[in-house]
Write a structure and sequence with these properties.
Blueprint: H1 2-11, H2 23-28, H3 64-84, H4 90-108, E1 111-113, E2 135-142, E3 145-152, E4 155-164, H5 175-186, E5 191-193, E6 205-209, E7 213-219, E8 224-231, H6 232-236, H7 238-241, H8 254-264
Antiparallel strand pairs: 1-2, 2-3, 3-4, 4-8, 5-6, 6-7, 7-8
Helix pairs in contact: 1-3, 3-4
């Protein structure tokens, strides 16, 4: 049972969520009606508590191999109780094979965002990465939890956890209650960013930051929420780290646009 709970503890933010009234979140929401909505702050509020990364040993800037080594150690520790309860022999060898497969599955989960589109484009993770900018992702799946590790130039810069919501869930029954608990934990309401389809943002997000990390609570419907952790140093350099910009599928081909411009150009004046 301890092994089954380990990922839940590891994938939890390392935050002791506590109850707080929802007025903190409501106060941070843009007002509706005729009254003008308050301007969105340029930066997320600074938390009173450190935003911790888990499992222990994970740090920004790690390579894919270094992250895999940390996950290996986490899995080894998760299997200790099962090894203690297993006698040497066939069952022990089966346990060895199971552990080795979990480690291998994490390494095989790597997806490189190169020239070809991936199936991740059809998931809520679309928009968290770009193509042709040396970006990749690895995913750890254990005990019903998912954790996605994002790399740029083979350096870890973002982690996204996917969590369930519902009655009795420690993170909250819905997005509002989950954000309210986070506001209590961090010591202040977060910055609310409403959906803006024109900018490619289709869900509400609430974020905070500390000295090294930005934390985003991402709405995922009634039964799920995502927690994103991002390296502030990398965030400040994303524009230069992503020289290749996504192309607009609905944009006019450059050659066609050039021909249109020629057709629309005024005729040259007659010769003298």
């Amino acid at each position: 049972m301890k092994a089954k709970r380990l990922l839940g503890a590891g994938l939890a933010v390392g935050l002791g969520l506590a109850a707080i009234t929802s007025t903190a979140v409501v106060a941070a929401q843009p007002k509706r009606g005729n009254a003008a909505a308050p301007a969105r702050p340029a930066d997320p509020p600074a938390t009173k508590k450190t935003i911790a990364l888990t499992p222990p040993g994970i740090q920004w800037g790690m390579s894919t191999k270094q992250v895999a080594a940390v996950i290996d150690k986490m899995l080894d520790e998760a299997y200790v109780p099962r090894y203690k309860a297993t006698s040497p022999g066939v069952k022990m060898r089966a346990l060895d094979a199971e552990l080795a497969e979990e480690k291998s599955a994490f390494r095989r989960s790597r997806i490189d965002f190169g020239k070809l589109p991936t199936g991740i484009d059809a998931t809520p993770l679309k928009g968290e990465y770009t193509y042709l900018n040396k970006e990749s992702m690895m995913t750890l799946i254990r005990d019903g939890g998912k954790r996605h590790f994002f790399f740029i130039q083979d350096k870890l810069w973002k982690i996204i956890d996917e969590h369930a919501l519902g009655e009795g869930n420690p993170r909250g029954k819905d997005f509002t209650s989950a954000v309210t608990k986070l506001a209590s934990t961090f010591g202040l309401p977060g910055r609310v960013t409403p959906p803006d389809p024109d900018k490619g943002r289709y869900v509400t997000e609430v974020d905070w930051k500390d000295a090294a990390t930005r934390f985003r609570a991402i709405e995922r419907g009634d039964a799920e929420i995502a927690f994103a952790y991002e390296d502030l140093v990398t965030l400040s350099s994303l524009e230069s780290l992503r020289p290749n910009k996504p192309t607009d599928a609905n944009a006019i081909d450059p050659s066609v646009a050039s021909a249109i411009r020629k057709d629309e150009a005024p005729p040259a004046p007659p010769p003298d």
